[in-house]
Amino acid sequence: MDLIGVIVIVTGVLVFGLFSKKLEGSPITLPIVFTGFGWLIGTAGLGLADIDPSHCVIHTIAELTLILVLFSDAARIDLKRLLSDHDLPLRLLSVGMPLSIIIGAFIALWVFPEATLPMVFLVATMLAPTDAALGQSVVSSPSVPVRIRQALNVESGINDGIALPLVLTFAIWAGAPVEGETGLGDLVTFAALQLTLGPLVGLGIGYVGARLIDTAITRQWITEPFQGVAILCVALAAFALAESIGGNGFISAFTAGLFFGSIIRHHCRFLFEFMESEGHLLTIMTFIIFGAVMLPQTLHHASGGTVLLALFFLTLVRMLPVALSVTGLGLSLPSKLFLGWFGPRGIASILFALLILEDYPVPGAEELLACVVITVALSILLHGVTAAPLAKAYGVFVKSRGECAETKAVSEMPVRHGFASDH
């Protein structure tokens, strides 16, 4: 990308930033704006920015963004509080997510009968993670009960890390070539190392990092800005060490974040402030790349079946497993529909497509893989537009019910854009 493209992008980000406060709570969300902006300045639009998806800088941005998203999302989840008073997200993760992968895979096989079984499971797993930030009005609206918005918040914080090992497994199962390794035994060994060494490294780095930072804060050795730098170093160290010994760095970063957030005693406010600034910029760049490169390329392989499958993933594949998973918890039908609808697909699915599919090419899968991009694009638009009005309407409905299962008190955990508040 030349300097003109850089100037156009930074100008677009600046203009959005100047009006960002005015746009809060409106249907004009950040993902909608920057996906559309990417399309406008890319080769499908005005051609002002020639972004090469194979360029090492793009790959580095995608890697760094995924590391930070996996680590920070996991770090904001307190495992003790999750297990003690968050039965709703536990049901969504332990029952709803596996069901959505299974149902999604077999619907994909029904729509595309020529597809292989590992391929449809790969696509279903790439689309399993949700991104609550795409419906920010839902997880931050004081009109939505804490139990409901925290269920969506916690689910989206964990399911990308859960999905990643499955994505790797299905990519390898689909016969994706590994550089320098061609035998079945080599593939099995490679997969085993990826899925075991990564979590083990993450456990160690997360534990040691939390203890070191806790000690430094307690003894007042470390300044607040350097708390953020230290936490960033923990995430990157987990990734780099796992990769250096044959494990998967992304799984390691997620595991490190999960244990870091559960072990550390001091509230690391700077971690969340970092994701609101530097991490926020990486997220913006990802949506620009998505709009400028991935969406135009995908449309060449899209078909009626691709769009149909994308609509299934946003509706039946999400809503039916959610309804089944929360059975017996006393939720009303509107609540089940609300939880089912607000499972937007976003940053994790985009990054999986950028990274996993580049490293594990699956021959002849263009049309099915196009479903991932089409699903995310529709989700960005539909969930962004409906988040604010449906959150308001749902809040009115729950209020009319008085004390009910939806208003059961639960502890709050940070969302990606700060803390949800009742005030």
Q: What features would you describe in this structure?
A:
The model is unreliable at 178-182 and 417-423 (pLDDT under 50). The longest helix has 36 residues, at 366-401. α15 runs parallel beside α16 (316-325). Helices cover 73% and strands 0% of the residues. The protein has 19 helices and no strands. It has one domain: Up-down Bundle (Na+/H+ antiporter like fold). It has 423 residues and is mainly alpha-helical.
Explain briefly what this protein structure is.
By secondary structure, the protein is mainly α.
Percentage of helical residues?
over 70%
CATH class: Mainly Alpha
**Number of beta-strand segments:** 0
Mean pLDDT across the residues is 82
What sequence of helices (H) and strands (E) makes up the elements?
HHHHHHHHHHHHHHHHHHH
* Count of alpha/pi helices: 19
**Number of individual domains:** 1
* Low-confidence segments: 178-182, 417-423
Secondary-structure-based class equals mainly alpha
